[in-house]
Write a structure and sequence with these properties.
By secondary structure, the protein is of the alpha/beta class. Helices cover 35% and strands 22% of the residues. Strand 6 (165-172) and strand 7 (179-189) form a beta hairpin.
């Protein structure tokens, strides 16, 4: 980025805009753009998953995380809610198999059976949803998982799941003027297959 910025033609009427992956939500990026307010407004980042402001399950997860872990880590860190969901998915897959000598393909077969897209029982991915999910599996029903990272509409043929993607930006904290990452209000809706929302004023001002 520094190279692109320094070599951009001075006569150009438009500057480069950057769309970065969540892997660049690091302090080094904030340090690089701290003295360039104009550059800050040209940077957007993406991160898969739901917005805690609209996903009640995620907001509950973040509260539980903060009250459980006091080690300085945060639940908002990329991948945290996804791994949490994955543990529940694997557990329900295990519950759906009766093979005593388990291998990975047994779990896959169990998941394909219980995540079939017909007449599903909705199951929240949290401690309260465990009994609901296990009771449904025991009764031979299928389930739809509502994860902390968003809805989990699995394609049972490929194993893929299409998730929402949040657009983040870099804002300047109005209190101490430090830079920080924040969800922008704009996101890709997997269920609608289109962008929703709009960039907040703090991203562009």
């Amino acid at each position: 980025m520094a190279g692109i910025e320094s070599n951009w033609p001075a006569s150009a009427t438009r500057r480069a805009r950057y769309l970065l992956s969540n892997g660049l939500q690091v302090k080094e990026l904030l340090t690089q753009i701290d003295v360039n307010e104009e550059l800050r407004k040209r940077i957007l980042l993406t991160s898969p998953g739901a917005d805690p402001n609209t996903n009640n399950n995620l907001s509950k997860f973040l509260v539980r995380y903060r009250t459980t872990f006091k080690d300085g880590t945060v639940g908002e860190t990329f991948g945290t809610s996804t791994v949490y969901d994955a543990a529940y998915v694997a557990a329900f897959g295990l519950a759906a198999t009766r093979n005593g000598d388990l291998v990975g393909s047994d779990i896959v077969a169990g998941l394909r059976r219980i995540l079939a897209p017909d007449n599903n029982v909705p199951v929240e991915v949290n401690a309260d949803g465990v009994k609901v999910g296990l009771d449904a599996i025991e009764a031979g029903k299928t389930i739809t998982l509502r994860g902390t990272s968003g809805a989990l509409p699995f394609d049972t043929k490929t194993g893929d799941v299409t998730s929402d993607v949040q657009v983040w930006c870099v804002i300047r904290n109005p209190v101490n003027q430090s830079l920080q990452f924040q969800t922008s209000g704009l996101f890709y809706s997997a269920s609608l297959a289109q962008m929703q929302g709009a960039l907040g004023a703090s991203c562009t001002n």
